Amino acid sequence: MLRAYRRVVSIMISGVTIAAIACSGTGPELRTAADALSRAADECLLDVRDRRFTWETSANCKSLSPLASSYIAAGGFSNEADSIRIIAEEARTTAWMARATSLAGGQSLSIW
Fold first, then answer.
1. Is 81 helix (H, G, I), strand (E, B) or coil?
2. Residue-level pLDDT at 108
3. SS3 5
4. Contact in structure between 75 and 24 (CB atoms under 8 Å)
5. Contact 70, 36 (CB under 8 A)
6. What is the signed CA dihedral for 111, 60, 58, 86, rounded to 10 degrees?
7. Fewer beta carbons under 10 A from the terminal one: N or C of the chain?
8. Is residue 1 exposed (0-12), middle (13-18) or buried (19+ Cβ within 10 Å)?
9. How far apart are CA 62 and CA 48, in angstroms?
10. Half-sphere exposure of residue 34, counting CA atoms within 13 Å on the CB side?
């Protein structure tokens, strides 16, 4: 009887641990979402800076909103691990650079 009780308690603890990891936003889904967001932001910047697309005509730029929503739904921008947070923040910064470049219409941009 005691052995069965220990087994049930062990299974319950394992379940709680798995649930905590899933809710903490550090799983592979969050990393995958952050990487996809980062790649799309990089391609968006290349589109508007080098390929002469506008923000509105770039498929990569258009994909950023749903990718960001997926990242947030996976637990992003809350309690994710530092390495994943850095990927997402760099993607956000890159997306803003792409947006500014697109709005500048080919003019040089400088912040300093």
1. coil
2. 82
3. helix
4. yes
5. yes
6. -10
7. C
8. exposed
9. 12
10. 22
Domain boundaries, the chain: 2-104
Report the pLDDT averaged over residues 22-26. 50
DSSP 9-69: HHHHHHHHHHHHHHHHT-SHHHHHHHHHHHHHHHHHHHHHHTS---TTT-HHHHTHHHHHH
E strand or H helix at 75: none
- 49-77 exposure pattern, b = at least 16 Cβ within 10 A, e = fewer: beeebebeebebbebbeebbebbeebbbe
Give pLDDT, residue 77. 82
pTM of the model: 0.72
